[in-house]
Design brief:
With 319 residues, this protein is mainly beta. Helix content is 5%, strand content 44%. The chain is flat, with a radius of gyration of 33 Å.
Amino acid sequence: MISAGAEAAAQDTNISGTDTSVSTFVMPVQTGTAMPANARISGNGWICFTGFALKPGPAASQQATSQQVGGTSAASGQPECLAIRPPRNAIIVANSWQCVHGFTRDGDRCQRIEVPAYGYIHNGIVTCHAGFALDDLGTCKRITAPANAVVAGNDWRCRPGFRKQGDACIAITASASHVIRGDDWNCRAGYQRIEDRCEAISVPSHAYITGNGWSCYPGYRRDGDECAKVAVPEHATLRGDSWTCNLGYQKNEGACIPLVAPANGYVQGNETKCFAGFARDETGACRRLVVPANATVRNNRWTCNPGFVRSEDDACKKI
């Protein structure tokens, strides 16, 4: 896509202001149009050479909306790849441009980033050095840590045995049921945290304690506060708290039924598949693929060869 400001600056032989707000500097592959000069074939379409971008125009906007094509010549209605002219303090990247380090994009220009004292530029953003934090005025202010705290990066944190409460660090008291963990506390094994206290865990039958909770034994599954036995049907195997059908069978509600290979197909694992050169139709049967000229079969589908594109009538036409 080309920015509005760049459209006004575009000339007959070059183009500036290519939009770099997208996640990539590489233009999408173009399809459905003839390949212009300064372009190359890519898969089943074409793209402009590095350093070139699609010329903007009224027809391009409509085409880009439907086919992701970015530019069309106003005179011929055909797309054109024109040389990119980056602004000062910018470099060409693939089919667009970006500002160099220390500058940020402002429309179709690269504006110098003002760096405050005790600050630096990281990925185009002003960041303060460790021990300083950026305030609302854009300056880096020294961090003052409260009692029982230490400065950490661009903030502060409480020392082990203390936790943050507002702008202060208050002491954490350990007990028989909980233990201090850094700036907080956790319940000991066999206890669970409820608000600001630790209560003993109630373990049901066929279960065991796991840290601060409980789990059911293999062959049982959790059902509310109990462990219910897993019912395993015929031709199935227990898997933890569930079951899976054996090879050659598929799940059908609560049972495992045998798989039957379709004509021109075979059974693989717990499903059926069509042979190469065949594909499923709307009834689920395996039908032979109808492959047009200039196409290649790949397992259960066909694709057009490089330099050709699939048309609406399922043919492969030359790009």
